[in-house]
Amino acid sequence: MKTFQIGQCRIDLLPVVNGLTAETDRVRAAYGNYESYGASMGIEGLEALRKRAEIGLDDIEVSELDIVYAEKMAAFGNVETPSPPFCALVDLCAADGKQVIALDFNDNDYTTAYIENVSTTEFVSEHRLAKKSHKQKFTARTPAELAQEWDMYVGTVAGYAKLNRAREEHIAAEIADTANYRKSLLAVVESERADGITALLEKYIHER
User: Fold this and answer.
1) 10 Å Cβ neighbour count for 32?
2) Average pLDDT over residues 33-38
3) Of 143, 140, 193, 105, which Cα lies nearest the Cα of 24?
4) What is the spatial distance between Cα 99 and Cα 140, in angstroms, rounded to a whole number?
5) Which residues does residue 2 pair with via DSSP β-bridges, in sequence order?
6) What average pLDDT does this structure show over 145-159?
7) How many domains does the chain have?
8) b/e code 137-146 from CB counts within 10 Å (16+ = b)
9) What DSSP character marks residue 13?
10) Which of 10, 46, 189, 197 is positioned for an S-S bond with 40, CB 3.0–4.6 A?
11) Which of 3, 60, 18, 43 is nearest to 191 (CA)?
């Protein structure tokens, strides 16, 4: 957990390994005594998690890269879709009558950012990247290290690296904006995005 003070708001940034069931314990342990809660997801994704019992998400579509990621991460425990730590945050907030703040792009803005950063050639190369990843050797000794290694592997495609940077910039800006009207915030983010978001938040701290 990384802690920041922006204005009158205390911000705790909680990195979680996306998809790993065991990460729900970390979310539950951190939950409580915050005025607000946020997640590195878009508003539509959070709403789908909140209503997942009604609409059913068993057949949710995942990319080839996501499938290989899950296979690799399974070495450290059970992996599920939708991501258990984010489900846990949504459920805890719902039980307390709180709304999770969407810190990531909404669907339309994500599509725009994707088009701006990922070329057509890079998009069609995803299958090749996923196929190659089966043979890729990873040296991670922890789930967080594997998430970081995987992110670096996918980031060898320049467009995906730029897209992730755009996400980090948006998430950091949303956290800083939330600090304008809240006294405390627990922000749950993917572990591989945490360092980038942390570096960007330093800018907002220095500007105050």
Assistant:
1) 9
2) 96
3) 143
4) 35
5) 13
6) 96
7) 1
8) eeebeebbbb
9) E
10) 189
11) 18
**What is the rounded distance in angstroms from the CA atom of residue 144 to the CA atom of residue 142?**
5
**DSSP classification of residue 197:** H
Q: Can you give the pTM of this predicted structure?
A: 0.94
Q: What is the percent of the chain where pLDDT is above 90?
A: 85
7: its two tokens: 């204005």
DSSP H or E run through 198: helix 191-207
Q: What are 156's two structure tokens? A: 């060898």
For residue 89, pLDDT over 90 is answered with: yes
Q: What share of the chain is helix, strand, coil (3-state, %, to 5)?
A: 60, 15, 30
Residue 153 pLDDT greater than 80, yes or no: yes
- DSSP letter (8 states) at residue 77: S
| pLDDT given at position 124 | 86
Q: Residue 2: what are its φ and ψ, rounded to 5°?
A: -115, 135
Q: How many H-runs (helices) and E-runs (strands) does the chain carry?
A: 11, 5
> How sure is the predictor about 208, in pLDDT bands with cuts at 50, 70 and 90?
low
